[in-house]
Amino acid sequence: LGFFSPSNSSIPAGLYLGIWYNDVPELTTVWVANRETPATNTTTLMLSLTNTPNLVLSDGDVGGRAVWMTTNVATVLGSSPPVAVLLNNGNLVIRSSNGTTLWQSFDHPTDTFLPGMKLRIQYNKPGTSDRLVSWKGPGDPSPGSFSYGGDPITFLQVILWDGERRVSRSGPWTGYLVKSERRYQQANASADIIIYLAVVDSDEEIYITYSLSDGAPHTRYVLTYFGEYLVQSWNSKTSTWLVLGKWPSPECNRYGYCGAYGYCDETAAPTPTCKCFDGFKPANTVEWTNGRFSAGCRRKEPLQGCTDGFLALPRMKSPDRFSIVGGGTSTFEECAAECNRNCSCVAYAYANLGSGRSRGDVTRCLVWSGDLVDTGKIGEELGSDTLNVRLVGVDVKEQRGML
User: Fold this and answer.
1) pTM: predicted TM-score of the whole model, two decimal places
2) Cα dist from 73 to 50, 117, 174, 287, 366, whole Å
3) Which of 249, 290, 319, 332 could form a disulfide with 375 if both were Cys (CB 3.0 to 4.6 A apart)?
4) From 3.10.110, 2.90.10, 2.60.40, 1.20.120, which CATH number describes the 109-249 domain?
5) pLDDT tens profile 108-120
């Protein structure tokens, strides 16, 4: 923890309070306190802990201009002075005399997601969520235009934004608690890193967090100023940060890239590409053939109404713009019936969230009444849904008999 001035900074003599890796020779900051208000008085810059208790960064001598201070600090318990501690996981905490955490930097992320951090949505604060926010540029830690975090409207998906525009989106949560991702630093399998992603849902909040396999080198997620969400690992042999993965990737996974009723087939070899749902065809064949997919797809035959059935498409990333119905709908049959009796419903997806939710609703039923946008095929990966799409030629009676 200390003061730093970014290389190539566009702000003369701008100093920031930050946290970085002590044993990485390349300055790699993971948290910045005063990212919106750089200190300009380089003669005297002071960080102090008050009895209120607050950390205060002052530009100047005692009593100088406060350029940053902690917020939402809990009440001190006990009469002894509080202490500030930098933990070995990169978390700066203020503790009371009895060890209670009153404030922590992990609750106020900047552009980096570290092991043990939480990206949360609090149920008692609708419309808000924890977000990573990119730097504005390579030498400017001030908040940039890109952000990453949970969707505060649905509580079920994670989104990468450029301002208010969606850049990429995960599929809605299907109830998994932990999933592992194996990443390789080099071609040989002995250099692998396992990242354990977890989703925790309680009465107060839902959040994602992660941990690493034993012996893993420094590994972090970072949202860059050019809009990519990267997982990086430090390679001590080459003294470089290796990119083990990035999002969005592939290109067709960018939000809405394949247009309405098109989907990004991430299982296609050798290159993921846009495809149309069964029963659909490109809306503009010439553009589609030339690799321009924004016009999407259209039905080969128009719907007849409620007489049409539903085609099950397994291993899909469900589309965006869904509605959640029947809070706690208990069965797949009830979810299917909810869409069947609404002639404007074009698709539905059901999932049993199981022990993933401690609250009363252990299932979720998603329905769509408009164009299906930002859909993908992701294979057997945790998080995939079976998407049921209304389609001409699917026998309703036969389908209901199979439910």
Assistant:
1) 0.91
2) 12, 18, 35, 56, 38
3) 319
4) 2.90.10
5) 999 999 999 999 9
